[in-house]
């Protein structure tokens, strides 16, 4: 089945990438993002870096925490480990590049939001920082002009 088959896409309400973008988390861990891109990554234990060796070059240093930057310690099977986390900007950049059904549906949703003048998600910290009611800057300008 092709990722471009819209019948196989999750609705915006069911798309985990959209839910992550609209959520309150400023940083998203590697496993959560990998599973949001493709639920089969849960069983395969896939890493985003394994999919894209040049991911660091694509994202830039400000979008991921990794070795040499702030490390996030976590417990892994009783031991200690390092967890790679990504910013909300990285989530968008990764979803724009990924070739999965969830990513294709995310791109379509995001294009619709931007075309409608909603350049920030309808909820979450980004929208609330711009307007407590979650309206985009464009909507605020229209309201004040009318």
What does this structure look like?
- The protein folds into two domains: 10-115, no CATH class; 119-146, no CATH class.
- β3 and β4 (79-83) form a beta hairpin.
- It has nine helices and five strands; from the N terminus they run αβααααββββαααα.
- With 146 residues, the protein is of the alpha+beta class.
- The strands form two sheets. A three-stranded antiparallel β-sheet has the order 1-5-2. The protein has a two-stranded antiparallel sheet with strand order 3-4.
- The longest helix is centred in the last third of the chain and has 15 residues, at 101-115.
- 23% of the residues are buried.
Notable features of this structure?
3-stranded antiparallel beta sheet, 2 domains, 9 helices, 5 strands, alpha+beta, 146 residues, 47% helix
Itemize the secondary structure elements and their pairings.
Layout: H1 16-22, E1 27-29, H2 30-37, H3 41-44, H4 48-51, H5 55-59, E2 64-65, E3 72-76, E4 79-83, E5 85-87, H6 88-97, H7 101-115, H8 125-130, H9 137-145
Antiparallel strand pairs: 1-5, 2-5, 3-4
What would a concise description of this structure say?
The chain has 146 residues and is of the alpha+beta class. It has helices spanning 16-22, 30-37, 41-44, 48-51, 55-59, 88-97, 101-115, 125-130, 137-145, and strands at 27-29, 64-65, 72-76, 79-83, 85-87. The strands form two sheets. It has a three-stranded antiparallel sheet. The protein has a two-stranded antiparallel ribbon with strand order 3-4.
